[in-house]
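Marked as duplicate of an earlier ticket. Keeping the data here for the record.
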Amino acid sequence: MARSPKPQPGLPTKQQILDFIASSAEPAGKREIARAFGLKGQEKIQLKALLKDMAEEGLIDGNRTAFHRMGGVAKVTVLRVVGTEDGEALAVPDSWQPDDATPPPRLRLIERGADRRSAQAALRVGDRVLARTEETATGWIAHPMKKLPARTEQVMGVVEIDGAGKGWLAPVDKRERHSQPISDLGGAEAGQLVLAEPAGRSPRSGVKVTEVLGDPLAPKAFSLIAIHKHGIPFAFSPEAVEEAQRAAKLPLSIDRREDLRHLPIVAIDPSDARDHDDAIWAEPDGEGGFRALVAIADVSFYVRPGGALDRSARQRGNSVYFPDRVVPMLPEVLSADVCSLRAGEDRAAMACHLTIAANGKVTDWRFTRAIVRIDEVIAYEEAQRRIDAGEAAPHLANLWDAWRALERARTDRDPLDLDLPERRVKLDEAGRITEIALRERLDAHRVVEDFMIAANVAAAKALESKVAPIVYRIHEPPNREKLVALKDYLSTFDRKLSLGQVITPGLFNRLLKDVADEAEKGLIMEAVLRSQTQAYYGPRNAGHFGLALGSYAHFTSPIRRYADLLVHRALVDGFGLEQPEPKGDVPPRSGLSDRDRSDLSRISDAISAAERRAMEAERETIDRYVAAWLSARVGEVFECRVTGVQKFGLFATILGLGGDGLVPVSTLGDERFHYDDRAQVLVGDSGQTRFAMGDRLRLRLAEANPLTGALKFEPEDHVGAPIEPRGRPMQLPLKKRGKHLVGQRGRPGNIRHQGRGKKR
């Protein structure tokens, strides 16, 4: 044991704390540090704040029961063997944080006792051990305490039992085509959704079931599949929940807050919104323009950097929205209650005050911390109905008038205008599908969108004026490779795209405006969308091409996006909006942490990746719901449009529904087809049969697999069925097919259909 320092009056210095943590042979938590320095009463409270400051400064890491030097290793921790050196095993910390500035240290594993050599030989690369660590003059060493069970990557699937009684794990990912043999069912039965892990080192060993999740077609199972498949964190740690509950009790004082409770601010949201983090207000300024307010939930007041709650939010990056549930970025006591801008209740807000000129340009802005009391929460459809019926109250009518001014400025800016449909899944109280339809696009949506864009631009420019750190929302122009592909594709429509000119969003808008045929316009719109780069977060500004904006940040959704929370914290720092320090066990500062202030790149990359993960999970879940909705309609014929062409077949989507599926080339007729990569078409040997993107076809639904979200189509099975390629009728010889359709692998337990809409 290290000798405790002689108690000194008052708090130890940061260096003294670091020296004690480094020299202690046992885990050094807050209690051990307080005992070592003889701290009592109020000094313990001051120590707690000091340790939090040190954590934010990147000096220490860990929790109140065991701290260690940042960049160091906990006294007792789990290590993973990565190799050997001079006969000794080398290991790294198993849970090294991905955003740490330094690479994980390598530790030499040293066994104590006579059986050291045999113990060393028993350790293999990939093994996990619980070990006691020590930093020496020659580097880190670790003394293994016990070997831990291997942690393997779990896979999800559905149990199938073949005719011989052998179990198979059918995948729930439509990109995976093969089942895996199950060596240990673990009590699972045929048709159940399970988690499994490899049963041995060889793929031939198959998998063993570790957890039974239940009926894969039960309500709410589809989102569960996506959550597990993509590794989306969905359970909050007890420490994060406890901190959220404490934060929710913070008193909402008027001190240093602007009182805006007299304004009739409204929140316009989807009818099924689970939280409300933005609200708007406007009134004429008497000079042809408007004074406007965008009020955003002041999440930074409740979620302070450095605590367990903040670490949890960083790990999530954003909320994930499924038809049946939301996986929130913050615990519900904050996301759905205290932070949510509910009607008639006092709420903490970050207020963006805007001055809008008659031409729609924002001429001035300012940011404050405020108290608001939302006048009303209105669904988009209801707000639109009131406006259309002339029943809108003055404050709602003012919003529409101010928006018309913003719309004029938007028209002058000429951002990319792609009006693409969005699918909406409606469920009943039991979680069963009642309807799947395309979401209607209303002026009410555009009103809120343009106010949010104005506030986001103001936030970016405000921080630029303070030369403050900014997490920008970046959308770069299309790269040349994608533009060349788009140019080649447009040429198949006899349309030209000159690459010698400056590529702007307006260029694409004019291209679409010149297309009279709606079917062709939809096709070109999708091609333009595919040519765009993916938006991301970053600290170095590269503009937002799609919105035709030079500076853009996300400010308006801090309940569900960590990027917005970082922007709020930067505004707190830049404009001196810090509140008095809270009482109780809540981190004191609500501005940026020192780590983020010095380098926003790491967290920007992390939340960009989390956003892509959420988008893919949400899209796959919608696909599964659509397949489940259609599984009772197998055999029916739908009006479809070709959305993709490959040498193995066509991809088509059901008009008005959005269900996407494959039409195998083997179903298209008796002749042989050739794929033209440049034109993206399939052409038959006869030269008379040609399939291209945009063709409108009548297709029969041959298979719908709710587990994977995969659909399979075939043309109508009678000769002479009308098929309309880009509006031109043509006759296509089709080979007749039987009505018995089987699943893609043909093993028992797969979802099968026989005749029209029957499942077994």
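See parent ticket for discussion. Residues 14-69 form a domain with the Arc Repressor Mutant, subunit A fold (CATH 1.10.10).
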